[in-house]
Amino acid sequence: MENSISRVNHPRGLKNFRKPFSTRRRRISSRWTNSRSRFIVNRLFSRRKKSFRSFASVQCIVKKYAKLTGIEHLTCHTLRHTFAHELTIRKIPMDVIARLMGHMKSDGSPNLSMTSRYTMPGEDDLARAVEELSWV
User: What count of other Cβ atoms lies within 10 Å of the Cβ of residue 44?
Assistant: First the structure.
Protein backbone atom coordinates (compact mmCIF):
# COMPACT_ATOMS: atom_id res chain seq x y z
CA MET A 1 0.00 0.00 0.00
CA GLU A 2 2.95 2.38 0.58
CA ASN A 3 3.55 2.51 -3.19
CA SER A 4 0.03 3.85 -3.63
CA ILE A 5 0.74 6.96 -1.52
CA SER A 6 1.94 10.24 -2.98
CA ARG A 7 3.42 13.14 -1.01
CA VAL A 8 1.88 16.48 -1.98
CA ASN A 9 3.67 19.60 -0.82
CA HIS A 10 1.64 22.76 -0.29
CA PRO A 11 2.82 25.55 -2.61
CA ARG A 12 3.42 27.99 0.25
CA GLY A 13 4.79 25.40 2.65
CA LEU A 14 1.75 25.64 4.94
CA LYS A 15 0.85 21.94 4.99
CA ASN A 16 2.02 18.79 3.33
CA PHE A 17 -0.24 15.82 2.63
CA ARG A 18 0.05 12.16 1.80
CA LYS A 19 -2.53 11.22 -0.84
CA PRO A 20 -3.47 7.82 -2.25
CA PHE A 21 -2.83 7.10 -5.93
CA SER A 22 -5.23 5.02 -8.00
CA THR A 23 -3.74 1.99 -9.74
CA ARG A 24 -4.16 3.69 -13.13
CA ARG A 25 -2.49 6.91 -11.89
CA ARG A 26 0.42 4.92 -10.42
CA ARG A 27 0.91 3.16 -13.78
CA ILE A 28 0.80 6.42 -15.76
CA SER A 29 3.06 8.36 -13.38
CA SER A 30 5.49 5.44 -13.27
CA ARG A 31 5.75 5.49 -17.07
CA TRP A 32 6.21 9.26 -16.96
CA THR A 33 8.98 9.22 -14.35
CA ASN A 34 10.72 6.26 -16.04
CA SER A 35 10.75 8.14 -19.34
CA ARG A 36 12.42 11.06 -17.55
CA SER A 37 14.85 8.97 -15.50
CA ARG A 38 17.87 10.76 -16.92
CA PHE A 39 16.59 13.84 -15.10
CA ILE A 40 15.12 13.65 -11.60
CA VAL A 41 13.11 10.60 -10.58
CA ASN A 42 10.31 10.16 -8.05
CA ARG A 43 8.71 13.48 -8.96
CA LEU A 44 5.74 13.86 -11.27
CA PHE A 45 6.45 17.55 -11.90
CA SER A 46 10.23 17.83 -11.82
CA ARG A 47 12.78 20.02 -13.56
CA ARG A 48 16.39 19.50 -14.53
CA LYS A 49 17.90 21.99 -12.07
CA LYS A 50 15.49 21.68 -9.15
CA SER A 51 13.99 18.59 -7.57
CA PHE A 52 10.49 20.07 -7.82
CA ARG A 53 8.35 22.52 -9.76
CA SER A 54 6.88 25.58 -8.16
CA PHE A 55 3.14 25.94 -7.95
CA ALA A 56 3.35 28.74 -10.53
CA SER A 57 5.14 26.51 -13.02
CA VAL A 58 2.48 23.79 -12.61
CA GLN A 59 -0.13 26.49 -13.25
CA CYS A 60 1.72 27.37 -16.46
CA ILE A 61 1.59 23.72 -17.56
CA VAL A 62 -2.17 23.60 -16.93
CA LYS A 63 -2.62 26.91 -18.76
CA LYS A 64 -0.69 25.51 -21.73
CA TYR A 65 -2.96 22.47 -21.94
CA ALA A 66 -6.05 24.65 -21.51
CA LYS A 67 -4.99 26.56 -24.60
CA LEU A 68 -4.13 23.38 -26.55
CA THR A 69 -7.45 21.71 -25.72
CA GLY A 70 -9.60 24.82 -25.98
CA ILE A 71 -10.94 24.36 -22.45
CA GLU A 72 -11.35 28.01 -21.44
CA HIS A 73 -11.67 27.72 -17.67
CA LEU A 74 -9.08 25.01 -17.03
CA THR A 75 -7.01 25.93 -13.97
CA CYS A 76 -5.50 24.08 -11.03
CA HIS A 77 -8.42 25.33 -8.97
CA THR A 78 -11.07 24.04 -11.40
CA LEU A 79 -9.25 20.70 -11.40
CA ARG A 80 -9.65 20.61 -7.59
CA HIS A 81 -13.39 21.35 -7.94
CA THR A 82 -13.73 18.66 -10.61
CA PHE A 83 -11.89 16.13 -8.42
CA ALA A 84 -14.21 16.80 -5.46
CA HIS A 85 -17.31 16.84 -7.65
CA GLU A 86 -16.45 13.52 -9.31
CA LEU A 87 -15.91 11.90 -5.91
CA THR A 88 -19.30 13.21 -4.79
CA ILE A 89 -21.02 11.79 -7.88
CA ARG A 90 -19.47 8.41 -7.03
CA LYS A 91 -21.02 8.68 -3.54
CA ILE A 92 -17.71 8.91 -1.67
CA PRO A 93 -18.41 10.10 1.91
CA MET A 94 -17.81 13.83 2.53
CA ASP A 95 -15.31 13.21 5.34
CA VAL A 96 -13.17 11.13 2.96
CA ILE A 97 -13.37 13.85 0.29
CA ALA A 98 -12.39 16.47 2.90
CA ARG A 99 -9.30 14.48 3.84
CA LEU A 100 -8.31 13.96 0.20
CA MET A 101 -8.74 17.70 -0.45
CA GLY A 102 -6.73 18.63 2.65
CA HIS A 103 -9.72 20.37 4.23
CA MET A 104 -8.95 19.82 7.88
CA LYS A 105 -9.72 21.86 11.00
CA SER A 106 -7.00 22.74 13.48
CA ASP A 107 -8.24 19.93 15.76
CA GLY A 108 -7.59 17.39 12.97
CA SER A 109 -11.22 16.74 12.05
CA PRO A 110 -12.48 17.13 8.46
CA ASN A 111 -13.73 20.61 7.52
CA LEU A 112 -16.99 19.60 5.82
CA SER A 113 -18.07 23.22 5.42
CA MET A 114 -15.09 23.95 3.17
CA THR A 115 -15.55 20.69 1.26
CA SER A 116 -19.21 21.41 0.60
CA ARG A 117 -18.14 24.53 -1.37
CA TYR A 118 -16.19 22.28 -3.72
CA THR A 119 -18.98 19.74 -4.12
CA MET A 120 -21.90 22.10 -4.81
CA PRO A 121 -24.33 20.34 -7.18
CA GLY A 122 -24.92 21.82 -10.62
CA GLU A 123 -28.08 21.74 -12.72
CA ASP A 124 -27.15 18.35 -14.23
CA ASP A 125 -26.65 16.90 -10.74
CA LEU A 126 -30.07 18.15 -9.61
CA ALA A 127 -31.76 16.67 -12.71
CA ARG A 128 -29.94 13.35 -12.16
CA ALA A 129 -31.11 13.30 -8.52
CA VAL A 130 -34.75 13.77 -9.56
CA GLU A 131 -34.37 11.02 -12.20
CA GLU A 132 -33.28 8.64 -9.43
CA LEU A 133 -36.88 8.83 -8.15
CA SER A 134 -38.48 8.22 -11.53
CA TRP A 135 -40.89 5.27 -11.60
CA VAL A 136 -41.47 5.34 -15.34
Answer: 16
